[in-house]
Amino acid sequence: MLAKIHVTLKNGVLDPQGKAVHHALNDLGFAEVQEVSIGKYLELQLDGVSEEEAESRVRAMCDRLLANTVIESYRFNLEL
Question: Is residue 62 a contact partner of residue 7, using CB atoms and an 8 Å limit?
Fold first, then answer.
């Protein structure tokens, strides 16, 4: 089973990397870009667990290590 996880900053949290990329894109002539958000994408290969258990385990992994839940939110999906 493959867990695909997206971690992004919560609304209202400053994103200096996103701002830097936004300004660089505008400087390069991509004026249509209005906002950039930088995040993380992870893929985890899981073996020997049911879909229900995998969902619970991935949520625990995100809460405990993969995302700083004070300033980040996450979403994931599981592929069999």
Answer: yes
What are the tens digits of pLDDT across the range 13-29? 999 999 999 999 999 99
Residue 26 phi/psi, 5-degree rounding, is -60, -40
Residues 6+ apart with CB under 8 A from 78: 1, 2, 3, 4, 46, 51, 54, 55, 58
Mean pLDDT of 2-20: 97
Structural domains of the chain sorted by starting position, each given as residue range(s) with its CATH number in brackets: 2-79 (3.30.1280.10)
